[in-house]
Amino acid sequence: MIAGHFGLAAGVKAKAPRLPLWALMLATFWLDVIFIILFPFGIESLTQVDPAHPAYGGALIHAYYTHSLVGALLIAAVTGWLASYPWGQDGGLVIGAVVFSHWILDLIVHRPDLPILPGNAGNLPLLGFGLWEFPVASAIVELALVLTGAYLYYQRAAALPVPPKANPSDQRRRVLTTSLVTTVLLLLLLLSDVLGL
Ligand SMILES: [Zn+2]
Question: How far is the CA of 185 from the centre of ligand 1 (A)?
């Protein structure tokens, strides 16, 4: 789902142009970054559902802190609050919302492995609509996110005023090139998601 998360970041960038793209991309992926930090300590882990078919969400993710509903909300709130220092209150709100968007997208694709409370306290039912069980549908959703994000990104870049000394057709070529490179990178990520890399 990496491509889908990043596609969303590219789309948000179009709507919140003051926020750097790297910050939005990092925000979409922030819960997984913390997961990767906790992983070596055995606090959160992965188990392979079907080792023969590692593609598309072939793993159950035991991320009972970072990927619990309440945990994700807390991480989003703290990250948004920190982001409000460099980027103001609006920027902080956008970053917080983007951090939490990761949980929403994960909720759609994950098999039921997302707890409500941190540490799965109270043994409440685990959440996840399991779209990953249908690789074609998952790829289509992700492709839609990538294409929408890339399109919004391109639209915004194309609408920027041409710098006074720049040649308008050079400028247009530059916008098209960056947008195309972004799209190709996202599509490659999507391919790696589909192959389960
Ligand atoms: Zn995740």
Answer: 20
- Using CB atoms within 10 Å of the CB of residue 164, give its burial: 0 to 12 exposed, 13 to 18 middle, 19+ buried: exposed
145 CA from centroid of ligand 1 (Å)? 16
103 CA from centroid of ligand 1 (Å): 7
Distance 168 CA to ligand 1 centre (A): 41
pTM score: 0.80
Query: Tens digit of pLDDT for each residue in 28-59?
Result: 989 988 988 888 888 888 777 666 655 566 67
- Say what the pLDDT of residue 195 is: 65
pLDDT tens track for 55-113: 566 677 788 899 999 999 999 999 999 999 999 999 999 999 999 999 998 898 888 88
Residue boundaries of the structural domains of the chain: 2-195
How wide is the angle at C-alpha 24 spanned by C-alphas 92 and 38, nearest 5°?
90
Cα(16)–Cα(50) distance, integer angstroms: 40
